[in-house]
Amino acid sequence: MHDMMAAILGDLDPDTAANRIALKQMVTRQITCPKTGVVLDVRQAVACTLRNQDGSHIICFVFEAAYWDANRAEIDNAAAAINSTVEVLDGRVLFAN
User: 89 near 43, Cβ under 8 Å?
Assistant: First the structure.
């Protein structure tokens, strides 16, 4: 069932549906992990958006989950160095059901 239809029918939380749709689009546009070259699978992809203090986004990348897990601390430190926050959409969580 389509995520938005599932949300309308009450089978899926609306925020989860919106985040699934967003991650699917990001994976479709990017196709491969920028660090490893692996073709992305939405269920094993992690989108990382850096945001300024005013909420505007600086940049967004989608990584394969293994790369994300190994480099999360480094990414968080880089974001902190430029006074930004990291927003994460993790396909492993969003598509767990």
Answer: no
Residue range 14-72, pLDDT digits in tens? 788 888 889 999 999 999 999 999 999 999 999 999 998 887 878 889 999 999 999 99
Contact 43, 57 (CB under 8 A): no
Using CA atoms of 32, 48, 44, 89 in order, give the dihedral in degrees to the nearest 10: -140
Q: Which H/E stretch holds residue 73?
A: helix 65-81
Q: Residue holding tokens 């699917």?
A: 24
Instruction: Kindly give, in sequence order, each residue whose CB lies less than 8 Å from that of residue 72, ignoring residues fewer than 6 positions away.
Output: none
- Chain centroid to CA 63: how far? 8
Q: Structure pTM?
A: 0.85
Distance from C-alpha of 41 to C-alpha of 91, rounded to nearest angstrom:
9
